[in-house]
Design brief:
heterodimer; A: 480 residues; alpha+beta; Peroxisomal Thiolase, Chain A, domain 1; 9-stranded mixed sheet; 24% helix; globular; B: 399 residues; alpha/beta; 2 domains
Chain lengths: 480, 399
């Protein structure tokens, strides 16, 4: 029996207040007033689809070992790299490389569900597959998309042991219905009229696809407990459910009020949200629309209640900071030619040969533990750092990303260039041993104190715009 | 411990350029400004120089690498010129090289010259972006004030000092240096500053405000050294000799091992202890007449006075507030105005500090002249509290 064995999610801490965004743009686009309520998630300047997918994957793997994963599928329409395996970066950050197949899936808003289907199929013979999806989509200033979109990620571990939601069946249709597109030469989506999308697209393509899926699963519409279908038009999922004979009460909330639509990740984000509260026996239908339809049906098992606690969508949603400064949203998304000053000009060229040699240190936050004296240290070095040891070639790799640490000393630096000044950084120490001077992120004045507990998080360190946007990733400390 | 070089080397002459934002001068002009004074003071001919040490730290923004810039600028007689770089200790390193050459007998006359031309970058503060390709991938994106600000937070935590008390103490450190710098025509900043102005200055890296940070400036300083015997033979009086030169360099334990609490300079404790031993100083609080220490930031000076074993650990802030280090205190510190008023042309600073000790011991310090100083101690701290080079030099009257 193949199915989902664990789930996880990630939502950035910042939430853009939609009224604030509307207020900034209403002189130009007063018609957006109806969308000026609630908030949308907003990635920090150092987050992209890779970093969010890493966080969602870590959340998912709370209960499982990363080294058991045999396949990683990473779905997004905003992969940071066009040619460089994005899923491979996630694998390295999770410290899995060997016996691993990594695949990027994109090109459509149903990339998330397509990845899930691929992951489930790949896991049939027992090889666990990690499916993660994340999007951080750009939107034009004063557009409806700007208010409707959100940034976020989900991750699902597929397998055959201790399945919490077994796959009942799936069905797909593919047709080139272009409701919107993003060409190679643009960062922004271009969409057609909503009424046409609703009447000629959704209404004619989705109901038959759902019915075919139900038939394949030998189920009736009324059997579905949770109906998950992302759409920028909130009435559409209800309409589709009705047309397919699924009860209105089964239609899941789109999470639009406080999160926004997370693109290729959204069907899986909503699935994680549903799994968090689902009961054994519940039947969950996931529908994703995007040049066709993917439909998957799951049945929740009794194993679900045994799954160890994790943050999930609700946990990350609860960690929240409201952002009312729309200018900051623009600046974080490089939509504002802000004067960064000469300190932002330092060359950020990455020596790829160094990155390769040190990839476990840089991407995996793997330090060392001395076999002679037991001292944990970062980075791993050939000579033990303990002044009373100094043993040579004595260290075993020691993964530190999952360890809690605390602040020994810190500062808020107004001189250093930071896209979100002042720059917070400080010496963090791990109770197991080991310390280093780390950049902090998601930090506020009242949170960062000597002794404060911190958690390591995988983030963008620099963006080498001189060379087409090579993102340097490393780990930063964030308040727990 | 080795025998050391106490009294084996004498300072024959010294020179120091005007420090400041020298828009009128490049590194070459600054070098010559210090050198001309130094050579004249030494009273020898350039052709008598047998070796030279040349210090800079951020040469990529001015002279570039090697000993060639010094040799060509001064038209030295094709003698060995060694370019040294050891961060903020670079100037003292050049001096150490020259002194060791004389002490070993390899040279009768050796030159040490340090220079830094920092004000051609287009922005304030020290040039950033140094470090190798691995550091660039993981080192926190810090600045010097941010690194030293953490010394303040760790010091407060370790000794239970309140933010208010510490701010007052480090404010006094800067206030005192400005009082002194106002009397020094070679200083960059020659203005006394009110305590209120210091305490209410804009924050640079909390808790360090603008007046807790030394300036960035251009400058050069030089020394010619020989043996005391040769100095005497040349008719010199009031000879200043080298009593000790020590250096201690971090090996990664502070930055990587949880035994260090961030509140002190491990290396300075070691270097100063060795220096007192080399100089034969038993009780530094009674024997040292004056200090020029590395006040890159006010808190650095405060903590350094503990690590030089002058103030009790955790109590230095009380000595500071008691005026112990003021010009009229028991041991004046930064009588020339310090880095606070001179700014910090990195390669030159160590030699600039020795220049003031040299003037004071000879009674040539003008309105800043202290009464009968016999022993002067200088200190540099390169890098950050968690990983650094600490250099200590002790000079004094040759008797």
């Amino acid at each position: 029996m193949v199915g989902i064995v664990a789930f996880g999610a990630y939502v950035p801490r910042l939430r853009l207040n939609r009224q604030a965004a509307y207020d900034a743009n209403k002189w130009f686009a007063p018609g957006l007033r109806g969308l000026a309520k609630g908030e949308r998630s907003m990635a920090n300047w150092d987050e992209d689809s890779i970093t969010m997918a890493v966080e969602a994957s870590r959340d998912c793997l709370t209960s499982h070992k990363a080294e058991d994963v045999r396949n990683i599928y990473f779905a997004s329409t905003t992969h940071p790299f066009k040619d460089r395996q994005n899923a491979g970066v996630i694998g390295t950050a999770l410290n899995v490389e060997q016996n691993l197949s990594a695949t990027d899936i994109g090109g459509s808003l149903k990339a998330g569900t397509s990845a899930l289907i691929a992951g489930l199929n790949a896991s049939k013979d027992g090889a666990p597959s990690l499916v993660t999806a994340a999007d951080k989509r750009m939107a034009r200033v004063a557009s409806a998309n700007e208010l409707n979109y959100g940034d976020g990620a989900a991750a699902l571990l597929c397998g055959t042991e201790n399945v919490i939601a077994k796959l009942v069946g799936h069905h797909s249709v593919s047709m080139d219905f272009v409701d919107h597109f993003r060409g190679e030469e643009s960062e922004f989506d271009y969409g057609w009229e909503e009424r046409w999308i609703r009447d000629e697209g959704y209404s004619k393509i989705v109901p038959p696809a759902i019915k075919a899926a139900l038939a394949a699963c030998k189920l009736k519409g009324s059997d579905i407990t949770h109906f998950i279908m992302p759409s920028l038009m909130p009435a559409v999922p209800k309409l589709m459910a009705k047309m397919a004979g699924i009860g209105e009460g089964a239609v899941r909330d789109l999470l639009g009020a406080s999160l926004g639509d997370t693109g290729a990740a959204h069907a899986l984000v909503m699935l994680v949200d549903a799994l968090e509260s689902a009961k054994a026996g519940d039947k969950i239908m996931v529908v994703a629309f995007g040049q066709g339809v993917d439909t998957l049906v799951f049945e929740v098992t009794a194993e679900k209640d045994k799954l160890p606690k994790r943050k999930g969508v609700s946990g990350w949603m609860a960690r929240r900071k409201e952002e009312k400064n729309y200018m900051k949203f623009l600046a974080f998304n490089e939509m504002l030619p802000i004067d960064k000053g000469m300190r932002a000009e330092f060359d950020k060229k990455t020596a790829l040969s160094v990155l390769w040699r040190k990839r476990d240190m840089i991407y995996g936050l793997v330090g060392g533990k001395c076999k002679v004296c037991g001292t944990v240290q970062f980075p791993r070095s050939q000579v033990c750092v303990n002044p009373n040891c100094h043993a040579i070639d004595s260290q075993d790799p020691y993964a530190m990303a999952g360890l809690e640490c605390s602040v020994m000393s810190f500062t808020a630096d107004s001189l250093v260039y930071s896209p979100d000044p002042p720059g917070y950084y400080g010496m963090i120490t791990f109770p197991e041993g080991g310390r280093f001077m780390a950049d902090f992120t998601d930090s506020d004045k009242d949170q960062v104190k000597v002794g404060a507990k911190m958690r390591m998080t995988f983030r963008i360190r620099d963006n080498d715009t001189m060379r087409g946007g090579f993102k340097r990733y490393f780990w930063k400390a964030a308040p727990v | 411990m080795a025998r050391g070089i106490k009294d084996k080397v004498a300072i024959l002459g010294m020179g120091c350029s005007k420090f400041g934002e020298r828009w009128d001068a490049g590194a070459e002009e600054l070098m010559l400004e210090a050198y001309k004074e130094c050579l004249k003071d030494a009273g020898i001919d350039q052709n008598q120089l047998q070796a030279a040490w040349f210090s800079t730290a951020i040469d990529e923004v001015h002279v570039g690498k090697s000993g060639i810039p010094l040799s060509t600028t001064l038209r030295l007689p094709n003698i060995p010129v060694t370019h040294v770089e050891n961060m903020c200790a670079s100037g003292t390193e050049a001096f150490r090289g020259a002194c060791y050459a004389v002490a070993s007998g390899a040279a009768d006359f050796a030159l040490a010259l340090g220079v830094e031309k920092l004000k051609d970058t287009g922005y304030g503060g020290l040039p950033g972006g140094r470090g190798g390709p691995l550091q660039a991938l993981w080192n926190a994106s810090g600045t010097a004030p941010g690194n030293f600000a953490q010394l303040a937070t760790a010091y407060m935590t370790a000794h239970g000092v309140s933010g208010e008390d510490l701010k007052k103490a480090i404010g006094h450190v800067s206030w005192k240096s400005h009082q002194n710098g106002a009397k020094n025509p070679k200083a960059h900043l020659q203005k006394a500053v009110e305590m209120d102005t210091i305490l209410n200055a804009p924050m640079i890296a909390s808790p360090l405000g603008l007046f807790d940070c030394c300036g960035v400036s251009d400058g050069a300083a030089a020394a010619i050294v020989t043996t005391p015997e040769i100095a005497k033979a040349l008719g010199k009086h009031d000879i200043v000799s080298v009593k000790a030169l020590q250096l201690s360099v971090s090996n990664g334990s502070e930055s990587g091992h949880n035994s260090w609490d961030g509140s002190y300079f491990h290396t300075t404790r070691i270097a100063s202890k060795k220096a007192y031993e080399e100089a034969g100083i038993k009780n530094p609080r009674d024997e040292v007449s004056m200090f020029e220490v590395h006040d890159c930031f006010s808190v650095t000076e405060l903590v350094t006075m503990e690590d030089l074993h002058i103030s009790e650990t955790g109590k230095g802030w009380r000595d500071v507030l008691d005026g112990f280090y003021d010009a009229d205190g028991k041991i004046p510190c930064q009588i020339d105005g310090g880095l606070k008023c001179f700014g910090h042309p990195i390669g030159a600073s160590g030699l600039r500090m020795l220049y003031e000790m040299y003037l004071q011991i000879q009674g040539k310090a003008g309105p800043r002249q202290l009464k009968n100083p016999r022993i002067g101690m200088t200190h540099n701290l390169g890098g950050a509290p968690r990983e650094n080079i600490s250099s200590v030099a002790i000079v004094g009257r040759y008797e």
